[in-house]
Design goal:
By secondary structure, the chain is of the alpha/beta class. It folds into two domains: 6-76, Ribosomal Protein L15, Chain: K, domain 2, CATH 3.100.10; 85-276, CRISPR-associated endonuclease Cas1, C-terminal domain (Four Helix Bundle (Hemerythrin (Met), subunit A)), CATH 1.20.120.920. The chain is built from eleven helices and eight strands. It has helices at residues 50-58, 85-94, 97-116, 121-133, 142-154, 169-191, 210-216, 220-230, 238-245, 249-252, 267-273; strands at residues 6-10, 15-20, 23-26, 29-33, 37-42, 46-48, 62-65, 74-76. A hairpin with a 2-residue loop joins strand 2 and strand 3. The longest helix has 23 residues, at 169-191.
Length: 277
């Protein structure tokens, strides 16, 4: 499957979405090349043809139905064409607890190192020290302890607090960015022939993307860096933050603290390769 970078947000669009000659159209406007797409977010007033869904699915593009009217969003993905996909699913289901704990240790370590790349001074030194202390299964809760230091050093002012349910513009922008990131990771997990329900650490029975949530943890600091460090000074309101998070910045921000592959890899492509490791 092609590795795209762009997540197209059509939450507020009203009209038909079609595919013509390798391009996705929103109404009569040419919105994005299928080669560049990693995901599409559609709102309640969007009408998508079956042909368009088939075309994007063939390229491994995730189509997310945005939350509205109190409904939870859903993600539409094609069935993976990876070799030995059934064997991979069985291996996921039968993996032993020690393996999951070792994997979670590496995930937490990578996340804390990435967080350290977003801050300076004593906070950075403390986070790097914590990263060296992560044990199997993160039995000493390094992730939680590091989060307290990290957000205290990163927050835009002394009163702001990171709250996943917060409705202020900063928390809402972070949640939106994490959603874009989650869309990329869903595409990556399916493309690798894995099943997203089988998580390493996240195991909530009502979460269909446990593995997705596990694997995106080291990439969250990339969104934090964009929201707090790379948005224009006048992007203080949520609509402007959303617009900034829809740009090629996610794909082109090479000097990020996100986990790296080879030197020519951008963050979006690294996200897509993580489940293949």
């Amino acid at each position: 499957m092609a590795i795209g970078w762009q997540v197209l947000d059509l939450t507020d669009f009203r009209g038909d979405v079609t595919v013509r000659r390798g391009w996705l159209y929103a109404g009569e406007a040419r919105a994005a090349s299928l080669e560049d797409l990693s995901g599409v977010i559609v709102g309640p007033a969007v009408r998508v043809t079956a042909a368009a869904l088939a075309a994007v699915a063939e390229r491994g593009v995730a189509v997310t139905l945005g939350a509205y009217g109190g409904r939870k969003p859903a993600t539409v993905m094609s069935v993976s064409n990876a070799e030995r996909v059934a064997a991979r699913h069985r291996a996921q289901a039968e993996s032993a607890a020690p393996v999951a704990k070792r994997l979670w240790r590496e995930i937490v370590k990578a996340k804390v190192v990435a967080q350290a790349g977003n801050v300076l001074g004593p906070a950075r030194d403390r986070l790097l020290e914590y990263a060296r202390e992560v044990r199997s299964g993160d039995s000493t809760n390094v992730e939680g302890r590091a989060a307290r230091i990290y957000w205290a050093a990163l927050r835009p002012n002394g009163e702001w607090r990171r709250d996943p349910d917060g409705t202020d513009d900063w928390n809402a922008a972070l949640n939106y960015g994490y959603g874009v990131l989650r869309n990329h990771m869903y595409s990556a997990v399916f493309a690798a022939g894995l099943w997203p329900t089988y998580g390493v650490y996240h195991r909530h029975r009502s979460n269909p993307g446990c593995l997705v949530d596990d694997l995106l943890e080291p990439f969250r600091p990339l969104i934090d860096r964009i929201v707090f460090g790379h948005l224009p000074a006048d992007a203080s309101r949520l609509p402007r933050k959303r617009k900034a998070l829809q740009t090629p910045r996610f794909a082109g921000l090479r000097k990020s603290s996100a986990p790296r592959g080879n030197g020519n890899s951008t963050p979006a492509r690294r996200v897509r390769r993580v489940p293949e490791v």
